[in-house]
Amino acid sequence: MGNKLKVGIIGATGMVGQRFACLLENHPWFEVTVLAASKNSSGMTYEEAVKDRWKMTTSLPEKYKDMVVKDAFEVEDICNKVDFVFCAISLNKKQTKLLEEEYAKHETPVVSNNSANRNVEDVPVLIPEINGAHAQIIESQKKRLGTKRGFIAVKPNCSIQSYVPPVNALMEYEPQTILACTYQAISGAGKTFNECPEILDNVIPFIDGEEEKSENEPLKIWGKVENNKIINAQNPIITTQCIRVPVTNGHLAAVFVNFKKKPSKEEIIKAWESFKAPEIVLNLPSAPKQFLKYFTEDNRPQTNLDRDYENGMGITMGRLREDKIFDYKFVCLSHNTLRGAAGGGVLSAEYLKACGYLTAK
Ligand code: NAP
């Protein structure tokens, strides 16, 4: 194991947990020492627990097969075996919030994919390329929780990952209003086609809670750290419609934007192509080399062709043109279980380690 950090995956048997397991199989900085899920799975080997529901296209990594799955609520026992945990569980918000806090209070940092703590003022919602500086709020959070090293950091909802990065690259032009319609994959609900027959030959115009998250979370990401809190930005005003479509992976968005200082089309493309993450992020093992890519072809990005751009960690855009009502419209795409979930979680953890927030116990 060398000097790798020991990590647990809480929710290891689910769609996102399986992604975490695959991404961490040969990770240079992190070694999985605990796999945990509900009481239904605990006590089984990981192979037994996922045998009829392995959802990845690659096979179940050998190294996890014989690991015995733990009950996610055996917090103390798990905390004795890890330096930090990734958390991706399907529980109600109240229970999830309490469980994540319990790990933090047992001096075990939590890098979470769940939404339960995203609205807490001293919990950073990280896209390291954009708002890595929000990690500084962790010091205030530790004071509130009474911890020395335990804290919670979260990654944002998968639905916003496609449109927040390209809009962020245009902040100097002061975006005022954004309309985004997202076309979201079924893996976003933790499902495959076998588990979601209602989506075949169909489009479902409702994803519970998704529009609220899609409209509010970007404002926290663009917010400021002040007086031990993250104060949300007031602008741009965002309205969304989130729609489930029959694809396995990849959330695509059709986006319309008005600016205070309207840029030219060339200025927008230049801002996207020249966007560079801070050096500390670029050097992380999971960071995309080029975060944003613009396609000039009229029929790109396409979910099936482009979701794996930069190992599923980059964002692709296309179809930028002027609009009759808004200044511009464009299409953008991100991989929901990679950049939008486990990959984004791993990148955030790498960033937190590089900043000294994640250390060996
Ligand atoms: P999922 O496939 O339904 O997996 C849920 C996981 O939670 C399983 O490991 C399950 O264990 C565990 N679990 C369920 N009830 C539990 C309980 N009472 N106690 C402890 N563990 C319990 O869900 P998912 O799609 O991976 O999503 C997990 C979380 O990530 C959710 O909060 C979701 O909103 C968020 N997220 C998902 C995506 C995505 O693209 N899918 C993107 C961003 C964020 P068992 O197998 O033992 O039941």
TrEMBL record:
Keywords linked to the UniProt accession: NADP, Oxidoreductase
SMART domains per record: Semialdhyde_dh
Keyword Transferase belongs to the record: no
InterPro entries referenced in this protein's UniProt entry, alphabetically: ASADH-related, Asp_semi-ald_DH_pep-lack, NAD(P)-bd_dom_sf, Semialdehyde_DH_NAD-bd, Semialdhyde_DH_dimer_dom
Membrane-spanning intervals of the chain: none
List of catalytic residues: C158, H251
Similarity comment: Belongs to the aspartate-semialdehyde dehydrogenase family.
Protein name in UniProt: Aspartate-semialdehyde dehydrogenase
Organism: Clostridium chromiireducens
